[in-house]
Specification:
The complex is a heterodimer.
Chain A (H helix, E strand, L loop, with lengths): L1 H29 L1 H15 L15 H4 L1 E8 L9 H17 L7 E7 L2 E9 L4 H9 L4 E6 L9 H26 L4 H8 L11 E5 L7 H8 L11 E2 L3 E12 L3 E9 L14 H14 L5 H8 L3 H4 L8 E2 L9 H5 L5 E8 L2 E11 L2 E11 L3 H4 L6 E7 L3 E8 L6 E7 L1 H13 L5 E5 L2 E4 L11 E4 L5 H13 L6 E9 L1 H55 L5 H30 L4 H33 L2 H36 L3 H6 L10
Chain B lengths: L11 H20 L6 H4 L1 E8 L6 H9 L7 E5 L3 E6 L4 H14 L7 E6 L5 E5 L10 E9 L1 H29 L9 H30 L5 H32 L4 H33 L2 H39 L1
Antiparallel strand pairs in B: 1-3, 1-6, 2-3, 4-5
The chains are: A alpha+beta, B alpha+beta.
Chain lengths: 684, 331
Amino acid sequence: MAKKQINLRSKLRWGIVGVFALLILSVGFILPSAFNRAISFVERTTAVSIPHISEKSFKLGLDLQGGAHLIYKANVANIPQIDRASAVDGVRDVIERRINGLGVSEPNIQTARVGEEYRLNIELPGIEDVNQAIALIGDTPILEFREQNTEPPRELTEEEVQMMNERNAVALERANEALEKVKDGAQFDDLVKEYSEDSDTNNNNGYIGFLGPNTVLGEPLYRWAATHNSGDISDTLIESEVAHHIVRRGGQQDGVPLIDASHILVCYLGARNCPNPMYTKEEAAARAQELYDEANADNFAALARDNSDDQLSASEGGSFSPFPAGSGPYPELDSAIINTEDGQIIGPVETPYGYHVVYKQGTTVPTEYEVSHIAVAKVREVDILPPQDPWKPTELGGKQLDRAEVVTDSRTGNVQVSLQFDSEGTDLFEEITKRNVGQPVAIFLDGQPISVPTVQQVISGGNAVITGTFSVPEARELAQRLNTGALPVPIDLISEQSVGATLGAESLQKSLKAGLAGIILVMIFMMLYYRLPGILSVISLSVYISVSLAIFKLIGVTLSLAGIAGFILSIGMAVDANVLIFERLKEELREGKSMKASVEEGFIRAWSSIRDGNLSTLITCFLLIWFGSSFVQGFAATLAIGILVSMFSAITITRVLLRFVIPWFGHYGNALFLGAKKTNDSDV
Amino acid sequence: MHSMMNIIKNKKIPFFISGLLFIASVVLILTIGLKPGIDFTGGSLLELTFSQNRPALQDMQMAVDTLNIGSAVVQPADEDGYIIKMQFLGETEHQEVLRGIRTYFNAEGGQATEVVETSEGITIGIAQGGDTEPTQRILEDRFETIGPSISSELQARSWEAGIAVMIAIVLFVAYSFRKVTKPVSSWKYGMTAIIALVHDVVITMGVFVLLGHFYGIEIDIPFVVAMLTILGYSVNDTIVVFDRIREKLIREGRNAFAQTVNNGVVETIPRSINTSLTTLLVLVALFIFGGMSIHYFALALIIGIALGTYSSIFLASPLLVVWEQAGRRKV
């Protein structure tokens, strides 16, 4: 019997050690830096290596550390039901990439489905400029490739044709009226003011300037000017596509010399834009040499047709349209062409596209004529029909973009953005370039054309370049925007909650102060009312508080204002179990039981009340976690953890402490517990 | 010893008081109604802090009225700020409102510029004032905007959570009292607990109807949480009291039911009062020190928990006796 007592006693002693070890360990978790300093000190003085505690900090809610919580609704109306979830996941990925550029620590982005609605919850802790973040998140860079719209515009209706004819008849009449006045000797300049509808020139006596042979709309004017002399005024109306003109000729001058040239391109594997490589570089050089040896002025066109890899010019017998010296279609060939005499063929010239054999047929110097005009505008179909979009969309866009990067054109030093497509995009791009050889293809960003290159040849590598007048930062921003991609579906901001860091810090201080005040009040109350057990319950309350906080830290409970409130509330409730036990204990003592028996009885009897009472609050907590939004969950989670820990601390820790302490007081026990006089049966 | 108080005998007084308060609360809820906040109606809340003296309330209201954002309610916040409640604002409108107010008061914006890192990784921002020439700065402390789809969802979820908690508590009470059958059947214990619970929550709501009517206190998500917490906590109190009665019934027999119940209640009074006292102590600390946003959450809990303790002593147990007597008369 005595031996058993001693065993129990030593077990209890271990229990006490355990309680304090738990206290120290959990305090260590809560205040790691202070502990680690102590550990380091011990290590230095004793040369014993002790593991340090990880300096993890409490996870604070957005309302305490400042930050923003945004909720977006994804507009999935146009997406088939089965693809919606993945489209919204795509949105999340894009937003994630964009936010990563903001430098927010630990952003949290989640998708949620509420009924038929898809939502994105975005938490940005510590963000300072929410406005910027929102602009960035909602940004939709839309990259599109468009090709020329070749579809015929709709036919004019009969009414429209009639209207057009009537108005043109009026215009013609007016133009003839002006012509009559010219013939009657009226001043040309006065008539410009009265009749001309060309807003570019009618304030300048109708002066157009020097016209060359390649002016598109002015071509009839050029033809007239070429056959008349300086000072002549046309005595008939000259009709162009846009107007009826009365033209006066001025002087003449030589235009920029135009070069007529042809070429044969032999490209090789690895050369730029080589559609179907047949040769290695060396073979291509040899083949080009062969062609050069064979070529002469008579067979050049035929050779080019059969052999040139420049598909655009091959069908024209290798011929470029006449170009001013120094701005040929292949800039790399310009100097070679300039240094060649008319009528000569020069042999393999290497460019990044391959080897060229070039035939410079000749140089012509066009004559330009100075003209002024009176223009009476005609009404054309395009003036009546709504303007047709010159570009039509293709399927190729930002969706098929693999990556974009900033590159520098080695030749011009211009900054460009290079685009690499994924396999689908590569195929699409090849088809598009095949359809549009010799035609322009436009690259649109956010609905604006940013680059309109003309397709030289089919491009099969899935690589395109946006040239343009970019500065380096502009190009970098564009590449970055393209890399983060467009949002697969549009999103709307439906809720925003942001808290400044100042308010957050204030709230944190206030809630900590409230918590501290609450704890102190409860402890004072317990010690005053329950005396010795009260003091013991204060110890177990300390263990409870530090263990709970350590658990919050360990499993990463986010401490929001509501969470701290929940925890503070749980402190009040934690004492509940102790109160139940102590009240029970007192009753047992009053009934005349021994101290030891009373303690054991008190715990056993109180347990069912503690369990049932806390269970109802726990049920509420779990339902709140299940149903709740973030405020609710923060509160319910800390309250639930607090209650669970409190049940453990009240039952286990207080009991160990009480059992351990009782024998110290012997006969004085009742006074300490009840505040009543010592009774005579306080011995076992 | 236990005859000093006879709660059961004097049961008519609390019955009368509770009945009166309950009916008054129901009438208030049905006629005036609780004042829903932006959590449930949708809308925006903007909290601003002025680095210098804040302008007078009329000036602030004028500034907001010039913004052309429909009706807006301006309330003072802390000593140096205002809270403005408006319709739902998109981000562009939000920025316009901020800019408009700053322009009106010729003030600058700004952020908390000084951030102090404490040893525990807690950062404390201090709003920067002027150095020599103090310039007015208007800092945005908090902005919340809740769209109609979110607010209607919050409304629906609050109801769902409320109903789920109610059902769970009823089931729990039924389970707790499953073994007690005589002289009052277990479902009567359960019903009594539920009546006490409804009483606590409804009267708390009644108080908030008045607070809403006279002081503009609005009902938000934290209020709903407080109500649900009261449900859980109040039943806790009642269960402990009933537990004791149950134990007494087993030990002392069932002859003097009223006396037994009275003894059970009186014996648990210290415990009932002490546990709610400790909880109330921390809640009062939270109410006083916890800051604006947690103020009325703490108040709702204080009222509800105090009522819960009152009802478990003065309402639930006497009701149990009434049930028992009614049952006996029938037999």
